[in-house]
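Next comes the chain:
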Amino acid sequence: MTTRTLALRIDAPMQSWGIRSEFIIRDTEREPTKSGIVGLLAAARGNARHCKPAIAQLAELRMGVRVDREGLVERDFHTAQNVPNTEGKGHRTVISNRYYLADALFLVVLEGDPALLAELEQAVRRPHWPLFFGRKAFVPATPLVAAPEEQANQGTGLFSHPLPEVLRDHPWLETSSRARQEAARSEEYLRTVVDTKVTDPAAEPRHDHPLSFEDGDRRYATRAVRTDEVPVPPESLDGASHVSE
């Protein structure tokens, strides 16, 4: 099998994918960001913040996100007392608004160098550092890739299919029978957000392509994404994946 793609299940009760967070306002996007996924993979590999070549290598992977369950945007109102300034003086009370996604579920697909994808697949199975989705408290609810004996049914892991095909055909990750019944009645579609060329007429800018995570030198570039939809994938009666090998 020639590996082309790595599919990850991003599933947690709470997730935060900030892109414009500053000072007392911590935002979240409606789906995982490129910087968030690169940071997650870097933690799995054990790449330190200052390791810019490794960050650049991960950021060059093409990324696509399928929204298998749209979450609700919620807000935490934080109050912290006795917070010092940068000189350790002037203790005061600081309030902040921290937004997060509740009950969201995503299929994230990465496409690129087969050797790198194979290394990442092993890294997320046995991460060097703990993995979380935007905040340290927001830990995965399920494994990012399926166990080898479950891959034929669950589908996450390595595939030889190109990214658009995996996004289109991968079994829906939703486990709620009620949601599945409603989807069958209404022919629902799933939102996708995929890296694209800047010349794409439907391209939208996202300022989340990481250049450096180093403390005091966090920098990002703008990438182009295309937002689209795919039908909820049909599944065989035994639940087998349409993209598994």
User: Anything to note?
Assistant: DSSP finds six helices and nine strands in the chain.
